[in-house]
Amino acid sequence: MSTHTPNQITLTKPDDMHLHVRNGEALKSVINHTARQFARAIIMPNLAPPITQVQQAQAYQQEILDALDDDKGFTALMTLYLTDNTSPRTIQQAKESGTIHALKLYPAGATTNSDAGVSNIKNIYATLESMQETGIPLLIHGEVTDPDIDIFDREKIFIDRVLEPLIKDFPELKIVLEHITTRDAVSFIQESPAHIVATITAHHLLINRNAIFRGGIHPHHYCLPVLKRESHRKALVKAATSGNPKFFLGTDSAPHAQHAKESACGCAGMYTAFNAMELYSEVFDNAGALDKLEDFASTFGATFYGLPKNQQQIRLSKQTWTVPEYLPYGSNMIVPFRAGQNCRWQLLHNHDS
User: Which of 15, 16, 252, 295 is the catalytic position?
Assistant: First the structure.
């Protein structure tokens, strides 16, 4: 049960239902930022090469556990990467494993390491039928990749062209439309059946597309799906703070080395894992909805995935602190979201309930 005052929040330790942690030395640099504030996280499978088989996911899960500084009680919830060749047999193996909590659909070429993604949704209909039968959720990066479609319209067109027909063909398939960015997506989720839900990132709640261009180009504000208009941001905030269980927390925190962001062809993604709950707290505080934060962060996602409620708690205080300009990232550096700027909420510590 959460408690809050104007200057402090205590809530059930939350879950991040959409997270990128990479592997190798990069993984070791970022995973503990998540573990100090989240009890569990849905881990994205878009490594190079992608995680397409159960055994790969189990090995990756062990690598994540080995990278933790100590036993924080953190659980990595694994996923598989859908390709044109993912078979119904793989879905059965995933269900039987107890390790795999979802499969991720990246339209080919939609974002980082998505070249092996699905080229045509019809190619995986037999696989989706197996997912519907077993109850394993489908996680969707909801953008079309046609070069003739404006980048700001890719999400809306995906809903119209791909998602609506998909739901008609698989009416019982559990679906998470991840990192939604538009009022169109909000309306679609609100009007869909209860098993069609969405995650919302902190950065899409806090900034709009002006942040990419204000005073020059800011590569650390470039992500996919790209930031949208202010009217869309406001619609996301209204949805996140509404208490509707169809919307829950997923940071889509996506680490890239500083030089990979600040280059002639910069990578898409923002690193929010370092200060994620501080950022979400600010959003809910600004909206006068701190009483809704625990459900959004700690309850709705767990309920959708059929997970027990976490027993630990976290506490945040309304006190200003400055985000570091840089953080270690393997042998490189990473620039966190709001680097060198202030956060108005600060995570204090974890304690047992």
Answer: 252
DSSP 297-339: IIIHHHHHHTPPPP-EEEEEE---EE--S-EEETTEEE--TTT
Spatial contact of 285 and 345, defined as CB atoms under 8 Å apart: yes
DSSP 3-state of 127: helix
- The structure tokens listed for 124 are 């995986």
Active site residue 252: yes
Q: Which residue intervals of the chain are DSSP H helices?
A: 24-35, 54-67, 88-97, 125-134, 154-158, 164-169, 183-191, 202-206, 210-213, 230-240, 258-261, 276-286, 293-294, 300-305
Residue with tokens 């409620």: 309
Please state the pTM of the whole predicted model.
0.96
pLDDT in tens, the chain (353 residues): 678 888 999 999 999 999 999 999 999 999 999 999 999 999 999 999 999 999 999 999 999 999 999 766 899 999 999 999 999 999 999 999 999 999 999 987 666 656 678 888 999 999 999 999 999 999 999 999 899 999 999 999 999 999 999 999 999 999 999 999 999 999 999 999 999 999 999 999 999 999 999 999 999 999 999 999 999 999 999 999 999 999 999 999 999 999 999 999 999 999 999 999 999 999 999 999 999 999 999 999 999 999 999 999 999 999 999 999 999 999 999 999 999 999 999 999 654 43
Query: How many C-beta atoms surround the C-beta of residue 75 within 10 A?
Result: 17
DSSP 349: E
Please report where in the chains the tokens 């990192």 appear, as a residue: 179
Strand partners, 78: 100
- Domain 14-311 class in CATH: alpha beta
CA-wise closest residue to 293 among 270, 271, 304, 277: 277
Distance CA 53, CA 25 (A): 23
Copy the structure tokens of residue 157.
């067109």
Spatial CA neighbour of 199 closest among 182, 179, 173 = 179
User: In the chain, where are the structural domains located?
Assistant: 14-311
CA gap 262, 218 in Å, rounded: 9
Closest CA to 351 of 37, 20, 17: 37
